[in-house]
Amino acid sequence: MLLAVAAVVALAVPPQVQIQASTRSDSGKQGRHVSVTVSTERSREVRRIPVTEEHLRTAFRNPAARDLLLRARASRLRQDSALVAYDAMAYQRISAGLGFARIGRDRLLYRSEHASRVRWQRGVGAWVDVKGARAVLPSVGGEAEDEIREEMADEVEGETPIPYYPGYEPLFIGTGRVKAEVNEKEIVHPLAEGAEAYYTYRAADSASIRLPNGNVVRIRELEVRPRTARWNYAVGSLWFDADRGQLVRAAYRLAEPLDVWAIVDEETKREGHDDEVPKWVKGMLSPMRGQIRAIAVEYGLYGGGRFWLPRLQYAEGDAQAGFMRVPFKIEQSFKYASVNGDEKLPPIRRPERPNLDSLSDSARERWRDSVRVVRRAVRDSIEKGLKPRGADCGPDGMRTSIGTRYGDDDDTGAERLRIATRIPCDVNKLATSPELPKSIFDPGEEVFDVKARDELVNEAIRLGAQPEWAPQRPRIHMGLDLMRYNRVEGPSVGARADQQFGAGYSASLLARLGFADLEPNAELTLQRTDLLRTVRVRGYNRLVSAGDWGDPLSFGSSVSALLFGRDDGMYYRASGAELTVTRTRASGAPWAEWRLFAERERAARRETTWSISGALDAPDLPVRTGQYAGGGLRLYTSRGLDPHGFRLFTDTRLEGAAGKPNGDTTQVGGSTVGYGRAAMDVTVTRGLGRRLSSALTVAGGTSAGELPPQRGWYLGGVSTVRGQAAATAAGNSFWLGRAELALETQGVRTALFGDIGWAGDRHAWREVGRPLSGAGIGASFMDGLVRFDVARGIHPGKDVRVDLYVEARF
Questions:
Q1: Which has the closest alpha carbon to 174: 272, 297, 36?
Q2: Domain segments of the chain as ranges
Q3: Domain 632-810 in this protein, CATH class
Q4: pLDDT tens column, 365-380
Q5: Which pTM does this prediction carry?
């Protein structure tokens, strides 16, 4: 699926415009730095805003900020000649997930991790001994996972992070080496020459660190704020050694998400290209954006308190292409055995190659392409058994490869770092290395110091850490994600206008019209966010689904309604205003949301029954019209990533409100009534060996006061009791159970399932009678990302129902 998206994008984007957002080394393999670049074939020049006297006058919020920036800038460009060698262990973990829903459980698509001993010496380079390496594709499994394990030994050669080398970029952004001046085609470095045109600075908190020898080191915080919000501007805090100006720690994020289509349009207009992305491609793959939510860097003092060297580096974010969301994380840590020790490293013989500086750009690229072809041919021959791995083995059971990184083509003029990588000939030993965490699915607290990292991020990246106020041009968005189909609206289309104001504020206007009911829907939202916390104020007139499970108004549910006549939503209309506060997990999915609201609720009548396979069969909701005001809380947790291990998912909902129903004769004098409701779902999955797995879901909820029908619980359908039609049972109290036993083969989980549930009056929960039930067989793809079920009702309905949906529990 991801390959298909990548192929469409590659064909659709004009060839003159290249968007790169990756972790890379100069060899083309994944490396240690976060790199985001926009470039064109016709224009390779560096682009920057000239620094004016006005920029210099307004860049510093207090006098100490200028002095701290200048000292830090000089230290960044000045190499510490006293550091001549070190011996360290380097650990790296790269993780990527995959999902469709805004709120969904964590699903791990890919993870790799490795541990290496890195010995560096000035004038020699780095000797890297790979101690452990492994990778998994838990959502796919099968041959794909076996293949990635076989290739892990080859890929790790370009992935090992080097803690320090001459020309090292201390902020974990860029291409690996320090660049003296700003280039706004990349992430605009806040310490580079010319950054005053893009940022403002304020010297803030200070602290003291007492060393074991009694010396005291003073550190000072420099707050960095962009003058305007752009995807390649950083916002956060940097701490420096107050005397030496060297970076001690940093926590920052990029000021706003990267909107790929907006950047493509901007570059196309800037360069005067005629090629444009086809509108149908934009519609299918919109939105297409990515964002880096947090970057954290922490240094430690080594060598008797003489050298600040990196101890922890971390980056997290997510990408979105249409309906697909891909959260990612990069975690690195370093532990030093010695600094400036007596060990002398043997020289590293550089591979023969032409003088690239003497070649033209095209000749240089042809030479590099030829090297890649040779490397690929060697790897393919090994995989096909034509050349055994042992052929390159030395007498010590290791094979050695020589390469270079960081230099030449990054325009610094610096010499490339020479690296010799030694890997065991028996690569099976790498996966079981004691240097790695016990399990690749573990948080890795003992290796990556998760607690210290989270404290650093939470301290520096807060809601008040924002770019300056600088309104930008509105953007209009129309795409498949704003289209839907249901029995009230029929086919419904929408358009959204987004406006960035700066200082973390933005506004959006969503307009929607259904062709069946012809009632306009609109939502006007003002929000402030730091990408981890979001506060929203919204006014709206919209269609709402009363159900607590699934998302009947999503595009995926709309496809099911259109194709199979399966519309499981219980709809009503609401007009009013709300205040929400959302806190986001590292994976990018909201895990906590508080909501205050005041709205008028009324009925939404069925306007169409048509679908391709037959009539839409769900009943209308008996709404109690009235004005309601109240609040709610939703908590979502997800624990465990191993599909063959223990995993726990919980969803808790609390809500309370008071209102005055219109024309309600049961209330004396039309007095105000109140209600409260609470529900919780718990899903546990557990592997039962290599290929068998199981899942159990239990859920329950109850209420107090006069619960209106639109806030009740409705059982039946793919999210509750499969095999029964939507809203077969309804009430102000419920309980639910679902059990599955599955056999996994090549990333496909074939499951037998049975569901049972009851909904009714909370005072009659002891008089359940015969509950709803259904059973069937289903196929789950990519760990529940896509699910296909054939279910037969047991009681009360006995029909056979076929459903296709996304983001299944199991």
A1: 36
A2: 2-347+388-460, 632-810
A3: mainly beta
A4: 766 666 565 555 545 5
A5: 0.85
